[in-house]
């Protein structure tokens, strides 16, 4: 009988892993259409929130080093909302967008030629040559100096470099400026990541806090502001929100920049509490539900373990502890 129960439990665990692991991208694509499209509505957002609520993991974990701030958060049932500029990933919350003056954009270059009455001086063959060129600005300047095409080419190449440098600088400044719109707290689905215990919990000497966002209900602002991170090889393209090509009329659209990270971070299985659009202007401590349990690091000191156990006993919070497997690179929960 015990063996049968164990088999059933193992099969159920496999089903949960496959179901959650295989569905995140699918359901989130539907969620994006409802919330992050060019336009949205209250009805769309409500449907999206319900869809997301169905897929929020039962427990999400916050890795912490032990210091006066993390202990205060534990005592107060709070977390710290951080500015992305303080994150360890310099790309965090970055985005890119196309600029109006792009020397490699044929339509943009031909538009400039028309505005400056240069098109009338070009033959149809030359216009076609510009359209087909990989360096349309260089080609335009080359044709603009028919007696000195080498000079025109040099001018075009120099101007193209300046325009690209200016465009890259503008995009970077815009992206960095928009980072201050976000205040974020990061969580993980995985409480047993060797790397995250090393990076975020003082080399396994810290602790991990387990939260159940389902306790808050579907209408709570914290639940509504919780998102899974989407891992990609491409930075978020915010072109629709800027310039003459702007097509977006949705204040939530740019929140996507806070959710896209390099695939190199995929092992973190991260979820984020994101407050965008300057809803919260400064880094602050923010109220959370009482933790479901605390997990102590495998290398936590005796003094720090006693401190955390004392706080948890007073608050009636379960305390678990990790141990290191003797024959595998695995952390086990005692």
Give the key terms.
alpha/beta, 2 domains, disordered N terminus, 10 helices, 334 residues, five-stranded mixed β-sheet, three-stranded antiparallel β-sheet, elongated
Tell me the number of strands. 14
Widest beta sheet: strand line-up: 1-5-12-13-14
Terminal Cα span: 25 Å
User: What integer value in Å does the Rg equal?
Assistant: 27 Å
Structural class: alpha/beta
Uncertain segments are: 1-23
Number of domains: 2
Contiguous helical run count: 10
Biggest beta sheet summary: 5 strands, mixed
Q: Globular, elongated, flat, extended or rod-shaped: what is the shape?
A: elongated
Written account of the structure:
With 334 residues, this protein is of the alpha/beta class. The protein has 2 domains: 21-93 and 182-333, no CATH class; 106-175, no CATH class. It contains 10 helices and 14 strands. Strands 1-5-12-13-14 form a 5-stranded mixed beta sheet. The protein starts with a helix and ends with a strand.
Short description:
The chain is built from 10 helices and 14 strands. It is of the alpha/beta class and 334 residues long.
List the helices and strands and how they pair.
Layout (H helix, E strand, L loop, with lengths): L1 H34 L6 H14 L4 E5 L3 H9 L1 E4 L13 E2 L9 H10 L8 H9 L3 H9 L4 H31 L3 E6 L5 H7 L6 E5 L9 H4 L1 E3 L1 E3 L3 E2 L22 E3 L7 E6 L8 E4 L5 E4 L5 H14 L2 E7 L6 E3 L1
Parallel strand pairs: 3-8, 7-9, 12-13
Antiparallel strand pairs: 1-5, 2-11, 4-10, 5-12, 6-10, 13-14
Helix pairs in contact: 1-2, 5-6, 6-7
